[in-house]
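Homework-ish question, so no full write-ups if that breaks the rules, but can someone show me the predicted structure for this set?
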Amino acid sequence: MRDERARTDKTTTDKQMTDNRMTDKKMTDKRIENILGNLLRVGVGLSAVIVLCGAAIYLARHGHAPATYRVFQGEPSDLHSVHGIVRDAMHLNGRGIIQLGLLFLIATPVARVIFSIWGFAAEHDLMYVVFTVTVLAILIFSLVGSQM
Amino acid sequence: MNILEFTALVFLGSVIAGLLGSLTGLGGGVVLVPLLTLFFKVDIRYAIGASLVSVIATSSGAAAAYVKEGFSNIRIGMFLEIATTLGALSGAFLAVWIPTNAIAIIFGLMLLISAFLSRKPRSPAERSASPDPLATRLRLNGSFPDLEGTRSYNVQRVPAGFGIMLGAGALSGLLGIGSGALKVLAMDQAMRIPFKVSTTTSNFMIGVTAAASAGVYLHRGYIDPGLSMPVMLGVLAGSLVGTRILVKAETKWLRLVFSTVIVLLGIEMLYKGLSGRL
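A: Not a homework solution, just the prediction itself:
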């Protein structure tokens, strides 16, 4: 609201309003940065812990088998989809648990974009809400489009 | 080599990749793909999948620190992400019609030239230039903690930067690479953003681009948990060390590391383009 007024008001209070907005903005920008940093940290930390658990099981069971990555075989189909990965992880399959952790990792930047929309909206920064929604829309479009 | 030894060695390599990736804003892929394919003889498709995982890990791991300490400019990042995601989308469609070898050769040459350009530090006149009206409107100008205290900066030539970012996005769609190099160059050379802000903001951005393609690669079976596990953990450890270094490092040294890495990347792209291995 204040944003709108500052833009249309061309009187002397205009400058004062802008100044207020600047200090306001600085406060909130800093807060957004803090929350955003924490969000990224939690996302990465959570996925690292899950991957570590999976790694312990995987290495304990298969650690002494030979490593074979020279020839591409593609992953078994249960590790392709979210549904299959969750099912494997539930059965305490090491590779399934690792893959679940990787899913959390992939979701972290997407969660960051979604949070930014909320953050800019809380700041009444309509321009950046539009920017961020655009980015999210393109992201979803490319994720959904790739499955078809 | 058994899986235990393989995992330990890949982990060590990934620590270095994460360290360099977080310092230069390029992500870990630049180092990882050649390391995995040439040294460990891993199939290129598994290597690409692992490299994608590494880019997201470096980006999110390091960004957590960079954003909090006020290096990354989230507005610049969000604004330019429109260009990179749009570019990536169009690149994926264009890939059917455009010879990727030719693009790789052009890209390689471009990197070699820009490695040369980006070594030159900025003159004081360039630093104190007045802000671009468009940058002010978009609220892109900001400040960051320099070695001598907080330093503010004005962003220049926004349209040029936005255009290069479209190209960077298209390249990542066409060639399947993170294109952090172009992101850093667009911000540093075109938009005249301080080097540390450029690399850390690029670092902040690359995770989103990589997440967009991760869905595709997961679906195609490129992401192998056994290989991605040491890569992800190693890269994370390396990127955490990298963020500590960047805060204290002098820009002169960061520029040197950056230009060395992009010379290697340029040679790699030229080789791939000329030998037709893409």
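Now go work out the reasoning yourself. Hint: Chain A touches chain B through 67 residues (CB under 8 Å).
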